[in-house]
Amino acid sequence: LLFPVSNLCGKCRPRDTDLLQPSLNFLYWSLHQTTPCSQQRAVAVLLSNVPLLELLQKVLECTWLRSAPSEPAYLSPEDALLCSGWLLVASLLLYQHRYNTEVHRTLSLDLTEVLNAVIFRKKKPILLLVSIMQFLRAVLRQNFSSSLLVIIGQNTAQDAMQPRPSSPEDAALHPLATQQVFSLVVSLQNVLVHKDLLLSQAVVACLETLVEYLYVKNQDVALHVASQPWHRFLLFTLLSGGQKSFLQPEVLRLMTLFLRYQSSNIISQKEISQILQEAAEANLAELPEATSRALHLFLCQV
């Protein structure tokens, strides 16, 4: 089925949402719900389909061409198609790297546009934000070096008119700029305050991957990001309201992140003791799977 469905996608235009939406979802799940052997073949089929890759290029570019909907929670057919496109490309990036599959047509994306889609959310639906963050995680994990993707780091026309010497930090973090990193971190923190479960999981995962990337590129910048005082206020905000327990997956994962990068101004011995006390008193067999995994990672880090 991969051959006819992928060929059908290649003959469509981005506005053919009724046909493309289920088709891209089928391709996405074909990659994830199969054996490793079949998965490698599926990746090869999709990455050899040039019309399909050209279509995905056009679909992703629609993200910054579309106007913001009046209702941010409303997922229109166009937004749903964008979600499917970003998730499929993120998966193709992951599996192309894993299997070193030959690519017959590369995708080109402006990193500034991708980051701005998250930083300046403009009432984007939650699922679309999550999908773009999944893509961002995929490119960060590959250090922006993929045979499938060509990343354009800056708006070159604007830079040509106003040339500025790049700082040593910018050079080390290329193609990211230091200011983009800080803007992205602040935006992710602001999104996390909304306390939406799906969005919180995506934001924490994106923060984890971003700090890992920064630590490889420039340890000083990574430690500076991880020790921002605003993180402590963020933790207090997450713990306010109805559920004040530290045993929330996103709280545990944030605590683990701060422990890993020794942010003693964010998490103190007192908080660590509170988490250990709550874990000792909890019925571990009844904890949700996400909480169990997060607690396991936290204890290993301690």
Automatic annotation (TrEMBL):
GO terms for biological process: meiosis I. InterPro entries: Immune_Signaling-Apoptosis_Reg. This is MEII1 protein. It comes from Crotophaga sulcirostris. The lineage of its organism: Eukaryota, Metazoa, Chordata, Craniata, Vertebrata.
